[in-house]
Amino acid sequence: MGWLRRGPRRDGDDAPRDPEFAYFSQREAAVFRGRVRETFAELGLEVTVYADHVVDDKGRRFGLGNLAAVCHQDRRGPRVWPGTIHRHIGLVVRAMDGPSALDTLPPEQIRAQLYPRVVSGDGIDAGAFGYARTVAPGLYEVLALDLPESVMMLTDEALERLGDHAQLRDRALRNLRGLPVEEHETVRDADGMCFEIILGDSFYTASRVLDLDGVVRRVTGLPLGEHGALVALPFRHQLAFHPIRDTSIIPALGAMASFAAAGYEDVPGAISPYVFWWRDGTLTQLSEHDAEQGDLRIVVGDDFHELLERLIAQGPDRR
Question: Would you call 288 helix, strand, or coil by DSSP?
Answer without folding.
Answer: strand
